[in-house]
């Protein structure tokens, strides 16, 4: 393949400059050896199922599929790969007892791919969202290894670029065994670029295939008529925004309470001091304090936030008023609770694109907008009821993707 030869030649030529640049920007050489296929791994006599999610968002999207695959296909080894260090970190955190091996996906050069395949013995490669790799597509086709895209999506901007270069991308897309997309729009875009209509179909979005947390009950005493706002997974700088907004709302709505849950436990002491500085009554969940005599409770226990969303009136999702990229709003939406986020939501942009078409989710740009939105949800009963109904709607319309992929894998692997 001419592309394989040319790309390898280019790699050799730019390698010295790449390594020098990596001295100043470590991100460029993170996982470099593993991406070359130079890693130590167990010897995989059994065939493996290889998942690839480039970074955090894609790995989180694959989470339920990976867990389901583990139980449905016990005769295969499970290998999880990423393209970034943050992706590696989340994969190792999420799947320590599920994956048989976690490493980086190889560079798209033939010798890297061949090294990787020799060590991992793949029966199938499953790529999250839309990653198009010419050499991967060529080598898997040549070796008769099925290559899948799941949760496929393509933004309008990317589509315009790919469409102009469809002469290049069409042959690549045609080598993919199956392309399973999030929506009809994504499906049509990829087919128009050159994907085969007979192997490209809508599956929905994997991130909506979650259920309510049923592991143990959660409760926190409150007075009749109290409405609890949860500020979940807050980061540095966001606590002040939330507390200032809550203090202002509290003056106008006496029965509003706040449960604040910092993302990182080491910040609990500082956040509690900020809570006390509001002049409102404060307590800690770890000390069994509740809302009967407190306006603010610090959630300083581990593993309870997901279940706590079931008792809230609405939720603010943290990591969105800084550059973190937000956290998963569906953890609250699954309990039919509307969510509000700041403008930084790039880790979950596909989910927000869906929920913000309804009243289930709102993105605000400023502290003032946050105040206005919370006030509307608290005081406008009709609007709030519709927001709760929209939470149900988005799950009903988008659920089922997980079963679609598992059926495909049973057809292929059994």
What does this structure look like?
This protein is of the alpha/beta class and 414 residues long. The chain folds into 2 domains: 32-209 and 399-413, 3-Layer(aba) Sandwich (Rossmann fold), CATH 3.40.50; 227-398, 3-Layer(aba) Sandwich (Rossmann fold), CATH 3.40.50.2000. It is built from 17 helices and 14 strands. The chain has helices spanning 2-24, 32-35, 56-72, 85-94, 110-120, 134-143, 156-164, 166-174, 184-193, 238-252, 268-277, 305-308, 330-333, 349-355, 367-379, 381-398, 401-413, and strands at residues 48-53, 77-82, 101-104, 122-128, 147-152, 178-181, 200-202, 227-234, 256-262, 282-284, 296-298, 314-317, 339-341, 361-363. It has a 7-stranded parallel beta sheet with strand order 3-2-1-4-5-6-7, with helices on both faces. A 7-stranded parallel beta sheet has the order 10-11-9-8-12-13-14, covered by helices on one side. Strand 13 (339-341), helix 14 and strand 14 form a beta-alpha-beta unit. The protein is elongated and about 70 Å long. The mean pLDDT is 91.
């Amino acid at each position: 393949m001419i592309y394989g030869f040319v790309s390898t030649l280019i790699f050799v030529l730019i390698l010295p400059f790449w390594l020098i640049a990596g001295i100043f920007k470590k991100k460029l050489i993170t996982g470099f050896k593993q991406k070359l296929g130079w890693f130590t791994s167990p010897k995989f006599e059994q065939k493996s199922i290889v998942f690839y999610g480039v970074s955090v968002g894609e790995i989180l999207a694959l989470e339920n599929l990976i867990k389901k695959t583990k139980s449905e296909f016990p005769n295969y080894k499970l290998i999880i790969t990423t393209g970034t260090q943050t992706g590696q970190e989340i994969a190792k955190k999420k799947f320590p007892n599920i994956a048989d091996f976690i490493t980086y996906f190889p560079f798209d050069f033939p010798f890297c791919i061949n090294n990787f395949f020799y060590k991992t013995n793949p029966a199938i490669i499953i790529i999250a969202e839309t990653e198009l790799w010419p050499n991967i597509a060529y080598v898997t086709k040549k070796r008769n290894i099925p290559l899948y895209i799941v949760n496929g999506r393509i933004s309008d901007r990317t589509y315009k670029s790919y469409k102009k270069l469809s002469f290049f991308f069409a042959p690549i897309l045609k080598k993919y065994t199956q392309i399973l997309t999030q929506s009809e729009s994504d499906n049509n875009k990829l087919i128009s670029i050159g994907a085969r209509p007979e192997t490209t179909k809508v599956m929905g979005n994997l991130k909506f295939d979650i259920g309510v947390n049923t592991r143990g009950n959660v409760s926190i005493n409150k007075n009749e008529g109290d409405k609890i706002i949860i500020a979940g997974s807050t980061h540095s700088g966001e606590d002040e925004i939330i507390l200032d907004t809550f203090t202002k709302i509290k003056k106008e709505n006496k029965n509003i309470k706040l449960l604040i849950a910092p993302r990182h436990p080491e910040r609990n002491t500082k956040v509690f001091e900020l809570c006390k500085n509001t002049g409102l009554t404060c307590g800690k969940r770890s000390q069994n304090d509740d809302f009967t005599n407190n306006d603010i409770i610090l959630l300083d226990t581990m593993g309870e936030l997901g279940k706590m969303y079931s008792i809230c009136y609405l939720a603010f999702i943290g990591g969105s008023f800084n550059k973190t990229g937000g956290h998963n709003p569906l953890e609250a939406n699954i309990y039919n609770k509307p969510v509000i986020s700041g403008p930084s939501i790039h880790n979950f942009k596909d989910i927000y694109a869906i929920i913000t078409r309804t009243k289930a989710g709102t993105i605000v740009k400023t502290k003032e907008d946050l105040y206005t939105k919370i006030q509307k949800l608290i005081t406008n009963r009709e609007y709030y009821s519709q927001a709760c109904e929209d939470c149900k709607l988005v799950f009903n319309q988008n659920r089922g993707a997980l079963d679609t992929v598992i059926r495909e894998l049973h057809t292929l692997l059994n």
